[in-house]
C-alpha cells in the first residue's frame, strides 16, 4: 500500500506541475492587463506609470522567463507576491483557508449524510409516496440556482424571522470568546452550509437510490435473504455497502471542487473564504494570487482523490491496490 | 418691519434653532459598508475608490474642499499665493503627530511628494508645473511653479495628495513596506484590525489635533460582496451607512423609505462623476461628426436618468459636470429626437455598418443602461452588436482602440485642467492606456485652449477659455455625454454630520457623530 501511495504522490506532483504550466498560459490568454487595471483605478493612466507597474510585477519579462521564475518559486513552496494586495500570496490564501474549509467540510458532511440517508429511504420504499417526496425535495434544491436559494434563505430566516444572521463569519465588534464565539460562528454557518450542502445532497440521494436498487437485484442479496437475514441487516450490510462505491467516487470528485466551488455561496453570505479571493483575483487579473489559488485547489483535488482511492478499499475489500 | 417679515424671521429662527442646539455627542460605533474590499489601505500606493473611503480616515491631505470646492484648512492651517501666481506658501498646523507619536513636519510633506511622484500617477500629473518645493522651517512649505497653474490649490485633497510618514517610508522598498498593511497617518481614526474578507476596524485617534474630535469611538467597514446582501444588512440593522454605490439603484427608493433613514446626494461635488460613451473617432461610421451627433439625438437620456438611475443625477450638457469650475450650459443642445438622428445618419450615408457597443461591467444598473442605449440606437436604424466583457477585458479593448462605442464614467476633480482636458487633448492619445483620449479626437484649437486654460491668469481669462472649449467640443461630439451621476449615501438618521465637504464620505468621518 505504501508503494501505491508513493506512486500516486509522484504522479500527483507531475499532474500539479502540468496544471501550473497550463494555468499560467491560460490566465494570460484572457484579455486585460493587471497594470492597466491598477493604473485605471489610480484615476490616471500614463505610459510611465503603466511601464513602472509592469516592471514591478515582472510582466515586462518574456513569458518563458516569467514561467521559470514562477515554477522555481513553487518548488520552494513560494507562491509569489500579490502586487495588488501588497502581500505574499501564501499569506493571503492561508488567511482565507480556515473559513473555506469550515464551510465546505460542513456542507460536504451535511450533503453526504443527508444524501445517503434519503437515498437509502427512497430505495427502501421505492415507488411509494415517500420515495417521490424525497426525490422531489432533493431535485428542488438541485434545480434551483444556489444564489436564489441563498437569497430566499436570507429573506426567510434573516429579514422575516430574524432567526439567523444574513452575512459574515461572526458578529463583528462583539468580541466574543470561548463557547459564545463558537455558537456565534455556528449561527453564521448554518445558512451558507445548508445552501451549499442541499445542492450537493441531491446528487448523493439520487446516486444512492439508483445504486441500491441495482444492487438489490443481484444474486448475493437473494442468497442473504435465503439465509434468513433480517431486512435491516441486508439493507445495511449488503446492499448499502455495495451501493456506496459510486457515491464514494462522486464524493471524491466533489470534495476537491468544494474548495473553489463555493464562490457564489461565499459571495452572497459574505463568507470570507477562498472562493471569493479567487473571484476578486480573476477580476483584477492578479495573476500570482489566482495561480496560487489554482495550485491549492488542484492540490486539494489530488489529495482528496488519493483519499477516495484509499476509502474504496475500506468500503470494498475486494479492491486491491495495483502497484 | 412688517408682521410678515417678523413672522418669517421668527419661523426661520425657530426652524434652525434645534439644529444649532444639537451639540455633537461623543462616543458610539458606526458600521458602514465598503464595496469592493480595498486591495490595501496605503493611499499613496493604491488609489481606487474603496481605498480612499477607508483610508481617508487614517491619512490626511494639506487641504479639504467645501461643497463649493473652496479650499479649507486640514494639515495646512493657512496658505498664500504670490502676486505673480507662481509661489504658494503653506503654513502647517503645529502639534500634529503621526499615529505612532512622531511629529508631523514640513520634511514629511517634501518626502510625501517625492514618493507620490513614483507611486501616484495622478499626483505626478498634477505636479508637472512645480519647479521646486522647499521647507524654510519645520512648519512652512513653499511651492514654486514654472508658470502660473490655475487649478493648483485644487490638488491637495487626501486622495490626490495623502501625507506619508517619512520616518517609516524613507529608504524602504515602498511596495513591500510592512506599514502598507498597518498604515500610520495623522487622521482622526487609527487602523486597528483587518480581517480580510470580513471587516476593517478603525478606532478613534485620542491625540487628534482638533480637540474633541473625532466624536465616534470606532468605525467598522464591513465587506459584503453581494449587492442584495448589502441591502439586507442595512434593512436588518447590521450596518448604518451605505456609501454611494453600495446598493443597486433599483433598491434605493425602497431603502430610502425605511424608518429612520436619511438619504443625501451630497459629497460628490469634488469628484463629479460624469458618464459618457466613448465614440471611436478614428474609424467606421463614428469617424463622421454627423453620426456622432446622431448618437446624441438618438439616446433618451431622460429615460436613463428617470428609470435606470431612479431620477438621480442630471442629464449632462457637455464635457464638464455642472459642479466643475467654469461650467457653462450655453452650448449646442441635443434633446431626444430620433427623427433628427435618422436624418443625420442618412445625410452621413450610413448604410447599416455594424457598430460594436461595450457596456460597463459594473453590475445590474450598467447592464440595463447598455440595453437601453442599444435599443435607442437600433430604433434610429443603427446596427448595434453588444460585446460582453469583464472590467479588465473591457479596459483592454478600449485601451487598444478596439471598439466603436463604449460606456465609461470618470471623476473630474473640480477643475477642467485636472479632470476634463485629459480626455480631449491630442497629447493624451496613447495606445494601451485607458481614461485618456481613447476616442482619438484631435483638434489643434482644443489643444491650445486647454494648454492656455491651465496657465492663464486671472480667473476671468480661464473662464473665457474653458467656455469656448466647451462650445467647440459639444459641437464636435468627440464622445457622447450621458449623465452627471449621483450616488446617494443612505444612513440611519441618527448618524449626523457624516458629509461636510465636497469630498463626502471619502474625506473621513471626523465630523460625524451619533445621536443615540
What do you see in this structure?
Chain A has 323 residues and is an all-alpha fold. Helices cover 77% and strands 1% of the residues of chain A. A two-stranded antiparallel ribbon of chain A has the order 1-2. The mean pLDDT of chain A is 86. In chain B, the strands form 6 sheets. Chain B has a 6-stranded mixed beta sheet with strand order 14-18-13-17-15-16. Chain B has a 4-stranded mixed beta sheet with strand order 1-10-9-8, covered by helices on one side. Chain B has a 4-stranded antiparallel beta sheet with strand order 4-5-7-6, covered by helices on one side. In chain B, 51% of the residues are buried. With 516 residues, chain B is an alpha+beta fold. The model of chain B is unreliable at 1-20 (pLDDT under 50). In chain B, helix 11 (364-379) links the parallel strand 15 (354-358) and strand 16 (383-386). The interface between A and B is large, with 60 and 61 residues.
Chart the SSEs and their pairings.
The complex is a heterodimer of chains A (323) and B (516).
Chain A: H1 2-29, H2 34-41, H3 47-57, H4 63-75, E1 81-82, E2 87-88, H5 89-124, H6 129-143, H7 146-160, H8 178-216, H9 219-227, H10 231-258, H11 263-268, H12 274-284, H13 287-315
Antiparallel strand pairs in A: 1-2
Chain B: H1 3-21, E1 29-34, H2 49-55, E2 63-65, E3 71-73, E4 76-81, E5 87-92, H3 106-119, H4 121-126, E6 130-137, E7 140-145, H5 166-169, E8 189-195, E9 199-204, E10 218-223, H6 227-235, E11 241-242, H7 252-256, E12 261-264, E13 274-279, H8 289-298, H9 301-308, E14 314-315, H10 338-348, E15 354-358, H11 364-379, E16 383-386, H12 391-399, E17 405-410, H13 416-419, H14 444-455, H15 459-476, E18 479-484, E19 489-492, E20 495-496, E21 513-514
Parallel strand pairs in B: 1-10, 15-16, 15-17
Antiparallel strand pairs in B: 2-3, 4-5, 5-7, 6-7, 8-9, 9-10, 11-19, 12-19, 13-17, 13-18, 14-18, 20-21
Amino acid at each position: 500500500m505504501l508503494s501505491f501511495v508513493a506512486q500516486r504522490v509522484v504522479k500527483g506532483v507531475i499532474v500539479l506541475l502540468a496544471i501550473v504550466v497550463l494555468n499560467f498560459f491560460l490566465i494570460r490568454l484572457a484579455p486585460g492587463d493587471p497594470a492597466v487595471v491598477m493604473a485605471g483605478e489610480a484615476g490616471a493612466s500614463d505610459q510611465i506609470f503603466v511601464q513602472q507597474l509592469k516592471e514591478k510585477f515582472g510582466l515586462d519579462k518574456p513569458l518563458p522567463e516569467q514561467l521559470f521564475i514562477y515554477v522555481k518559486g513553487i518548488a520552494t513552496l513560494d507562491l509569489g507576491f500579490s502586487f495588488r494586495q501588497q502581500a505574499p500570496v501564501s499569506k493571503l490564501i492561508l488567511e482565507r483557508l480556515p473559513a473555506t474549509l469550515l464551510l465546505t467540510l460542513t456542507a460536504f458532511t451535511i450533503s453526504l449524510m443527508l444524501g445517503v440517508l434519503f437515498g437509502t429511504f427512497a430505495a427502501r420504499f421505492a415507488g411509494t409516496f415517500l420515495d417521490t417526496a424525497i426525490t422531489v425535495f432533493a431535485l428542488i434544491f438541485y434545480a434551483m440556482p444556489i444564489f436564489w436559494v441563498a437569497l430566499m434563505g436570507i429573506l426567510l430566516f434573516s429579514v422575516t424571522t430574524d432567526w439567523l444572521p444574513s452575512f459574515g463569519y461572526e458578529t463583528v465588534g462583539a468580541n466574543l470568546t470561548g463557547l459564545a464565539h463558537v455558537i456565534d460562528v455556528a449561527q453564521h454557518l448554518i445558512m451558507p452550509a445548508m445552501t451549499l450542502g442541499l445542492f450537493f445532497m441531491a446528487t448523493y440521494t439520487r446516486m444512492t437510490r439508483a445504486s441500491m436498487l441495482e444492487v438489490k437485484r443481484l444474486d448475493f442479496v437473494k442468497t442473504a435473504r435465503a439465509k434468513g437475514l433480517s431486512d435491516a441487516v441486508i439493507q445495511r450490510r449488503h446492499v448499502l455497502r455495495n451501493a456506496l462505491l459510486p457515491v464514494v467516487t462522486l464524493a471524491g470528485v466533489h470534495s476537491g471542487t468544494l474548495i473553489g466551488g463555493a464562490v457564489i455561496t461565499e459571495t452572497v453570505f459574505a463568507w470570507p473564504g477562498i472562493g471569493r479571493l479567487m473571484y476578486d483575483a480573476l477580476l483584477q487579473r492578479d495573476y500570482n494570487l489566482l495561480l496560487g489559488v489554482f495550485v491549492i485547489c488542484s492540490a486539494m483535488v489530488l489529495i482528496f482523490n488519493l483519499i477516495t482511492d484509499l476509502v474504496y478499499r475500506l468500503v470494498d475489500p475486494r479492491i486491491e491496490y495495483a502497484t | 418691519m412688517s408682521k410678515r417679515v417678523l413672522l418669517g424671521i421668527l419661523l426661520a429662527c425657530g426652524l434652525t434653532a434645534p439644529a444649532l442646539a444639537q451639540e455633537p455627542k461623543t462616543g458610539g460605533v458606526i458600521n458602514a459598508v465598503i464595496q469592493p474590499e480595498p486591495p490595501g489601505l496605503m493611499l499613496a500606493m493604491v488609489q481606487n475608490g474603496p481605498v480612499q473611503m477607508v483610508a481617508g480616515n487614517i491619512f490626511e491631505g494639506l487641504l479639504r474642499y467645501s461643497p463649493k470646492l473652496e479650499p479649507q484648512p486640514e494639515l495646512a492651517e493657512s496658505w498664500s499665493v504670490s502676486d505673480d501666481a507662481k509661489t504658494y506658501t503653506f503654513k502647517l498646523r503645529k502639534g500634529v503627530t503621526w499615529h505612532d507619536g512622531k511629529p508631523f513636519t514640513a520634511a514629511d510633506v517634501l518626502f510625501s511628494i517625492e514618493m507620490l511622484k513614483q507611486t501616484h500617477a495622478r499626483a505626478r500629473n498634477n505636479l508637472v508645473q512645480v519647479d521646486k518645493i522647499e521647507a524654510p522651517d519645520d512648519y512652512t512649505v513653499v511651492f514654486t511653479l514654472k508658470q502660473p497653474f490655475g487649478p493648483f490649490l485644487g490638488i491637495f485633497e487626501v486622495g490626490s495628495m495623502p501625507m506619508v510618514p517619512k520616518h517609516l517610508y524613507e529608504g524602504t522598498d515602498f511596495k513591500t513596506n510592512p506599514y502598507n498593511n498597518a498604515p500610520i497617518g495623522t487622521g482622526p481614526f487609527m487602523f486597528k484590525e483587518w480581517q480580510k474578507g470580513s471587516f476593517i476596524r478603525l478606532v478613534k485617534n485620542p491625540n487628534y489635533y482638533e480637540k474633541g474630535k473625532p466624536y465616534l469611538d470606532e468605525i467598522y467597514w464591513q465587506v459584503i460582496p453581494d449587492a442584495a446582501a448589502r441591502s439586507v444588512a442595512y434593512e436588518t440593522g447590521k450596518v448604518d451607512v451605505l456609501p454611494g454605490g453600495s446598493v443597486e439603484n433599483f433598491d434605493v427608493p425602497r431603502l430610502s423609505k425605511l424608518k429612520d433613514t436619511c438619504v443625501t446626494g451630497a459629497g460628490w461635488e469634488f469628484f463629479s462623476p460624469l458618464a459618457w460613451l466613448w465614440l471611436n473617432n478614428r474609424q467606421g461610421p463614428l469617424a463622421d461628426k454627423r453620426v456622432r451627433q446622431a448618437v446624441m439625438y438618438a439616446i433618451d437620456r431622460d429615460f436613463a436618468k428617470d428609470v435606470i438611475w431612479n431620477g438621480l443625477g442630471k442629464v449632462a450638457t457637455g464635457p464638464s459636470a455642472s459642479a466643475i469650475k467654469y461650467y457653462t450650459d450655453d452650448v449646442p443642445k441635443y434633446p431626444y429626437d430620433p427623427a433628427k438622428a435618422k436624418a443625420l445618419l442618412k445625410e452621413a450615408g450610413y448604410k447599416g455598418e455594424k457598430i460594436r457597443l461595450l457596456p460597463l461591467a459594473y453590475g445590474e444598473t450598467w447592464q440595463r443602461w447598455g440595453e437601453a442605449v442599444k435599443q435607442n440606437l437600433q430604433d434610429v436604424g443603427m446596427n448595434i452588436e453588444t460585446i460582453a466583457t469583464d472590467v479588465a477585458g473591457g479596459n483592454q479593448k478600449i485601451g487598444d482602440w478596439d471598439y466603436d462605442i463604449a460606456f465609461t464614467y470618470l471623476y473630474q476633480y473640480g477643475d477642467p485642467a485636472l479632470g476634463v482636458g485629459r480626455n480631449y487633448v491630442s497629447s493624451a492619445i496613447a495606445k494601451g492606456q485607458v481614461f485618456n483620449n481613447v476616442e482619438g479626437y484631435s483638434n489643434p484649437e482644443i489643444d491650445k485652449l486647454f494648454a492656455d486654460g491651465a496657465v492663464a491668469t486671472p480667473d476671468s481669462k480661464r473662464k473665457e477659455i474653458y467656455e469656448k472649449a466647451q462650445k467647440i467640443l459639444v459641437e464636435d461630439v468627440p464622445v457622447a455625454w450621458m449623465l452627471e451621476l449621483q450616488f446617494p449615501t443612505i444612513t440611519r438618521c441618527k448618524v449626523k454630520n457624516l458629509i461636510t465637504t465636497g469630498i463626502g464620505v471619502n474625506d473621513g468621518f471626523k465630523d460625524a457623530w451619533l445621536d443615540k
